[in-house]
Amino acid sequence: MRDLFSSRDACRGGVIKRQVRDVERIVGRDVFLAEVERRGWQALENGRHFIICCNAEPVRRARSAPARAGA
């Protein structure tokens, strides 16, 4: 987790992505999300990935997902 949070993108306030299963296996979901919150960042979960916004800027959805056929 130290490597993740000290990466160049994280230090510059960028966005990083990690697989949920790796986070759960290495440090655990609760520990990971507590550290994200402690830093004032936001984490999104989409499918099998966490997307971490390494800054305190608001997150806005730019576009809604298109309707799925048969839904």
Provide an overview of this structure:
The protein has 71 residues and is α+β, with helices and mostly antiparallel strands. The chain has one domain. Helix content is 35%, strand content 21%. It contains four helices and three strands. The protein has helices at residues 2-5, 8-11, 20-26, 29-38, and strands at 15-19, 42-46, 49-53. It has a three-stranded antiparallel sheet with strand order 1-3-2. A hairpin with a 2-residue loop joins strand 2 (42-46) and strand 3 (49-53). It is globular, with a radius of gyration of 14 Å.
Describe how the helices and strands are arranged.
Layout: H1 2-5, H2 8-11, E1 15-19, H3 20-26, H4 29-38, E2 42-46, E3 49-53
Features:
three-stranded antiparallel beta sheet; alpha+beta; 35% helix; 71 residues; 3 strands
Short description:
The chain is of the alpha+beta class and 71 residues long. It is built from four helices and three strands; from the N terminus they run ααβααββ.
Q: Which percent bin holds the helix content? A: 25-40%
Shape: globular
Residue ranges: pLDDT <50 for 5 or more in a row?
none
Strand count, sense and barrel status of the largest sheet are: 3 strands, antiparallel
Q: How many structurally independent domains?
A: 1
Q: Provide mean pLDDT, rounded.
A: 90
* Biggest β-sheet: strands ordered side by side in the sheet: 1-3-2
Number of helices: 4
What are the secondary-structure elements, in order, as H or E? HHEHHEE
Structural class: alpha+beta
Distance between the amino and carboxyl termini: 39 Å
Instruction: Compute the CA-based radius of gyration.
Output: 14 Å
- Say how many strands there are: 3
Strand content of the residues, in percent? 15-25%
